[in-house]
Amino acid sequence: MRTFRKSVVRKTKRLFDHPGTSKKLAAAPTDMSQIQQLIEMGIGEDVAQIALRRNDHNVEKALEYIFSHDNIVESEDEGVAPELPPRRDPTDDLEPKDYSREIVPFHQIPHVEETAEEDLMEDSNMHEPQLSYSRFDLSELSAKQTVRSLDPPILLPSHCAIDIAPLLTILHAIPQARDALLTGTKDTYEFDPSWYTGTSKKTSLVEETQKLVAFLDGSTGRGFNTISSLVAGIPAAIASQLSGSSRSSDDSTAVGAFLEQLTQRNPSAAETFRMVATDGEESEPMYNILLGVGEPSDTCVDIADGLDKLLWSGLSDGSATEEVTYLQTISPVVSITCRREDAQSGTGLAVRPTFYPHRYSEDNLENVKRIHSRALEAKKESQSLFQKRFEMSNFQGVSVTKLLEVTVGHFDDDAKEGVKELRKLQGQYLEAREEIGVRIDQLEEMMDDVDVGVYGPEYNLKGAIISPTEFYYNHHGQWLHVAYLDEAPVSVDSLYTVRPVAEEDVCEHAARGSDQFDAQEVTLIYATSENSDVPSVELPAPLKAFIEEDRKHFEELLAEEEAAEAETENLIELDAADSDEMETENTEETEATAQATEAKEQDGLAGAEQPQR
């Protein structure tokens, strides 16, 4: 059996295949079953394709179109794919953005960390922008310039661990996720003053993650931290996945790869992030659901619809009734990464603030099968009625309706018994056709109405990673938007901005995607609703001691800077006093000289005025 991950990717590509590109959109393909229906009714394949295409792939409308047109041929420009409309400017339907600075591409973000793998090769087929990275030395910032403002502390991103800084910030704000990341703590965490700058000795991935989670509690007084030390602990096996060099080219995600490696090294955290998917025979753990998304349709408008098609496609088309993938184990924290196949950013589907992952559980599977079974039965009956109506409407290519009209109209004497019977037959015929049409409409509604409905506990949206430059997370009930900036480091405010937003803004932006560049997949993090009320536990004693050491070190740096500033001010004051004293002495000397000169001049004048003897 195919593994779940690979089979899901194959299903996704089949279900959401987008025949065009970001520049052109090809016409929607015609369902071969629709063409076959018309062929079985004696209609040529070419005529069937043209009629279906000109009537929105509706078999009934296509039949009526064929009956009312004698010569159906394809026009010269009919096969040309239409141009996509210009990409919608999201600013047209949003409130003016309240950014204090412009959000900039990720390649201009300040970085100090070393790469996990210096020789990472970029995949030539990837849809990511070709990123280069400028690096600012954050050690140039004084301690005073890094003091935390009113905003919560933030982790700065790394180009070799895309999405991990936003991910940890989001998970820290979810009590159950934070507590899971802090399980399995060490007895001691050796404090190194260079830890903050990312130049301390290499430790484990779990240890560095726990230090950063503890830092996000905010007790150190610092406004931000890098993830440089964590990057140093990233296993080489997932370096390309986390850096983005294999992004959009396989079935992996940075979020899934990171959580998998983390929980393998810290099994006590696994039940919070690990799901298990199965088809009843083989099972596979999942740490992130990858959802490939093509063009939205009438039956696929939001994330839940996309997952329905991803997992239950065999039920909806009748190709699989027994072997169906479902979630055997569902974790309290669920992440979904949406990757579009048209080189655009965003989910491409509507994002809801609530999610019910247990609809994909084994307990709900029988209910799902019944619903899809009814839809399949309705589809079969509808096809049968289409065939019956066509047979009623045509005899050897001649329209029965027109034949009856002509026949009745041929007789002048309406009083004749045969004409009355013929008119009665015509009425019964038209009534039967109308009844079939009404029943077909009812069946089409049944086929469309395959909503499984709400099932299981409610999960709430807790975070959304829009791109490497921006993300949203729910901080104690308030949604915050974080944008990384590209200015040279002079203070906390020069590195990022944080602003409060409404939940509907988060959902809209996640669906729309990045405004900076294309092909940016979006990751949504959901957690059980109880996480809104559960308080976080205190830090384990060893981590608390480590953070206390960091706080003391930071306070010492601040004290040293204050002392240095005070000493500088004293020197300036002393220099000013010496300068004033010297100026006073110079003034007095100048005045004395001037007085002496004046006295001498007066004596000279007095001598000149005395009479000659």
Written overview of the protein:
There is one protein chain. The chain has helices at 4-15, 32-40, 45-54, 59-68, 164-172, 175-181, 205-215, 228-232, 239-243, 254-265, 270-273, 303-317, 365-393, 400-410, 417-448, 503-512, 541-609; strands at residues 154-155, 224-225, 275-278, 283-286, 289-293, 326-329, 333-340, 354-355, 394-395, 398-399, 459-467, 470-475, 478-484, 496-501, 522-528. The chain has 613 residues and is of the alpha+beta class. Among the domains are: 1-17 and 152-361 and 457-555, Cysteine proteinases (Cathepsin B, Chain A), CATH 3.90.70; 372-448. Strands 5, 7, 8, 11, 12, 13, 14 and 15 form an 8-stranded mixed sheet that branches. Helix 2 (32-40) crosses helix 3. The N and C termini lie far apart (141 Å).
